[in-house]
Amino acid sequence: MSAIPGNVDTDAGPPMTVPLRHFVVALAFLVAGVAVGVAGGRGGHLAQVHLLLAGWVCLTIMGAMTQFVPVWSGVALHSRRLAAAQLPLAAVGFAGLAGGLLFGVTAVLPVAGVFAVAGVWTFVYTIGRTLADAEWDVTTAHFAAALGFFVLVTSAGVVLALDHAVGVLPMVGVTRADLLSAHATLAVFGAVLTTVAGALAQLAPMFTQTDATRVGGLLQRAETVGYPLGVLLLAGGRLLGIPALARVGGVLVAGGLAVVGLLLARRLLAASVERTPMLTRYAVVAVTLVVWAPLSAWAWWQDPIAYGSLFGHPAVGTLLLVGGVGFVVLGTLYHVVPFIVWVHRYSDRLGFEDVPMIDDLYDDRVALADGACLGLATVAVLVAAIAPVPTGSSLLAGVLAFVGAALFAGNLLGVLVEHGPQSLPVLVGGRFVEESES
Question: Where are the transmembrane segments (predicted)?
């Protein structure tokens, strides 16, 4: 079973409906994003990127931070009203952006961008005010940096949306390609992977039950400073067309993620706890980062601005998105969703009656099946990136990814249906008095 954290204050968090609603909506974006990827078509790639990175990953991050920043810091969430309001604004914005890109309706992009900014900035303000009262540590530092990146990436996104609709970039002297490159850099390496690094600094020791080493602590402190700086330099160099600036930033980014991967791998190898879907998927993350980092550092040293090396070495850039970003979200959700439900449904019964443990809430067989499907899809994507593959292999990878995503979403939704206190329609669309209590 998963460890049940002892040093957390669940009373400091929001009502369980707030984070769970984020996760349910994010799962819908996941399935939609994979489906769009399988279907393809004009505008499908950019739409899929927004469905998966913005809709699935970012909404998951928003829900997870809203739940766990107050819980592990022991500081009350700044505003439950704002935490409840951020989801519909961001979800409408992300869906509008994906729809506009998919169907080529550029007029909707600025409107959708405003909704996305409103939702994300509401989240940034709420979590930022909460973090201001929390004790400063490695995780807090990463999350504070990630909030800044969320502001930067959404600001760049709105400008891009306006440029798609009315062409504003020539007036400010920036090309769309340069701004798009900086936008993608800030999104993946800034908002998403900075959050991932901060979360793993908290979750990896908690769930592997391993102690830090002196060398590991020094490396982690160096990464805490160097990685966010590297993201700024890499994005700035790409925006301004300054290879030397981007080159330094790229080395810092690759080095920082190598540290994250190596420290995670060490903890997983030293862990004596039972393997869970969370830790198994974290192992994929560790291997991905360790493989990705040296290849990408070399590619960025050669040419950090080339579009083909946007996410690192061309052979492993997609691997980072799938194995580094996707699997950390998959693994974390396999603990977070059951944990939240278990705490609110069963924790007060522990010791008085037989209750299921956290890992008993989902189906192990389905978790094994979705992991196999998504793992095979990842291997297929990696093989396709480094060698010619037979026609139809991309479709096979897409089908495997879709089946895996559907099984994963169904497994977690099953936790809510069987063990949650409310039906899914009520959870997603209902209005709760407790959410309005600030």
Answer: 20-39, 51-69, 89-122, 143-162, 182-204, 251-270, 282-301, 321-343, 366-389, 395-417
pLDDT tens series, the chain, 438 aa: 444 444 555 555 577 889 999 999 999 999 999 999 888 766 688 999 999 999 999 999 999 999 989 988 888 999 999 999 999 999 999 999 999 999 989 999 999 999 999 999 999 999 999 999 998 999 999 999 999 999 999 999 999 998 888 877 766 678 889 999 999 999 999 999 999 999 999 999 999 999 989 999 999 999 999 999 999 999 999 999 999 999 999 999 999 999 999 999 999 999 988 888 999 999 999 999 999 999 999 999 999 999 999 999 998 998 999 999 999 999 999 999 999 888 888 877 777 778 888 888 999 999 999 999 999 998 887 887 777 666 566 778 889 999 999 999 999 999 999 988 777 777 777 554 344 444
Q: How far apart, in whole angstroms, are the C-alpha atoms of residue 21 and residue 27?
A: 10
Q: What is the DSSP string of 48-80?
A: HHIIIIIIIIIHHHHHHHHHHHHHHH----S-H
**Which residues are within 8 A (CB) of 350 and not within 5 positions of it... i.e. 6 or more apart?**
none
Phi, psi dihedrals of residue 342, rounded to the nearest 5°:
-60, -45
- How many domains does one find in the chain? 1
99 closest CA partner among 35, 165, 48, 24: 48
Q: Residue 389 has which token pair?
A: 């593959």
426 within domain boundaries: yes
Domain span including residue 263: 14-436
Q: Residue 108 corresponds to which tokens in the numbers above? A: 């909707």
Give the separation between CA 323 and CA 368, rounded to whole angstroms.
16
Neighbour tally for 299: CB within 10 Å: 22
C-alpha–C-alpha distance, residues 31 and 51, integer Å: 9
Q: How far apart are CA 15 and CA 18, in angstroms?
A: 6
End-to-end alpha carbon distance in the chain: 34
AA letter at 322: V
Q: What gap in Å lies between CA 321 and CA 319, rounded to an integer?
A: 5
Contacts of 100 (CB under 8 A, 6+ apart): 106, 107, 108, 109, 112
Does some domain include residue 8? no
Distance CA 129, CA 16 (A): 20
Question: Residue 150 maps to which CATH number?
Answer: 1.20.210.10
> How far apart, in Å, are the Cα atoms of 338 and each of 20, 279, 334, 420?
10, 15, 7, 9
State the Cα angle at 63 between 60 and 67, rounded to 5°: 135
User: What are the φ and ψ backbone dihedral angles of 86, each rounded to 5 degrees?
Assistant: -65, -35
CA–CA dist 179, 135 (Å, integer)? 35
159 domain residue, yes or no: yes
